């Protein structure tokens, strides 16, 4: 999985990077991590040396704010393998030295942030005891695994609301990150230019294990208007049982080669090969997902796993596309952003969702996708450090490194993908402390 690459990346580049901020989204299927690595020339094990080094790292902006320059990185783990995640976090400590000791970025006498543990409830800048180290975390696992994190790593999870984090993450990406949103239709990917001043309202559809549909009206202004339990967990769970695939990507890959018409009952199968034009259904429209499996005297082993996988993927994607459209219609929303790791940047998934939205809305509504699709919640949790206001001393801001347009000025959270962003989608940015 990706995290292995991250571990080796981190190891090979430990002399360049130092992790200073981290947030988690612990979902039903996957754990997502967002962490900020400062650019740095050297990295030493000794806490005091790190501290003085941090002093020098913590340069000042024009208006005397402490500035940390670096990149946001992303990683994910299967929730069922949470120990791998804990090992990864531990290995960061080993690689980078003293991350669990509360290395601080000091500005004058003010305590701006601690490294990795990120913040403590200490107001006076003195070294906080480890039982006061917090990591921002969201998702159900922030509750479920709180004791485990405490026991294994000695850190507390500071819980942030999952829906709020999804919305914060989406707003941040859509407003601040260049070439984040795109449409996908007929194999064509097209980036969408988002005007940050004309973003709302929109429907956010997060397809994780289950699916949440959220009407977003502004920063922190949202309502979860619908959801469905037929989501990514359904695709992966049923797919695993039906195809014996060993991992999600294998199942997805398999769907690529399959033909759903072997498994699905089409309008043409019912209407003797003709369209049902009067109600707008062509002969190739799926009349009943998996419908052929009832009429055939075939058993599961008589079907090709790739056909089953393709049919399943279409069933789930179509259904989500249709429910999303109905909710967009309900509230008069024209833009629907789809996120969550079910999508996985997979062409056929995106195409199916886009076709469903296009078909049901008669071309009125548009399905859009996000490059950092699976990390909205973790980003939202990360951004919540910003609102952490301990005596008003610990507010962090993300500052855009390369301004996208003059019109985006005036908002205080900026960031952009640098032109040479790596394949993991890391984001170059600057964290400001005020
Ligand atoms: N490597 C993988 N292992 C398992 N599932 C994966 C993988 N990659 C993509 N997926 C898909 O992504 C889904 C999980 O997406 P995501 O991480 O956004 O949700 P979650 O936070 O785990 O779920 P929820 O928000 O419902 O708790 C899985 O159900 C599966 O369909
Ligand atoms: C329960 C959550 C919010 C956990 O992330 C998600 O899996 C979900 O939205 N499930 C769908 C539940 C429903 O609305 O039917």
TrEMBL record:
<dbReference type="Pfam" id="PF03630">
    <property type="entry name" value="Fumble"/>
</dbReference>
<dbReference type="InterPro" id="IPR043129">
    <property type="entry name" value="ATPase_NBD"/>
</dbReference>
<dbReference type="InterPro" id="IPR004567">
    <property type="entry name" value="Type_II_PanK"/>
</dbReference>
<protein>
    <recommendedName>
        <fullName>Pantothenate kinase</fullName>
    </recommendedName>
</protein>
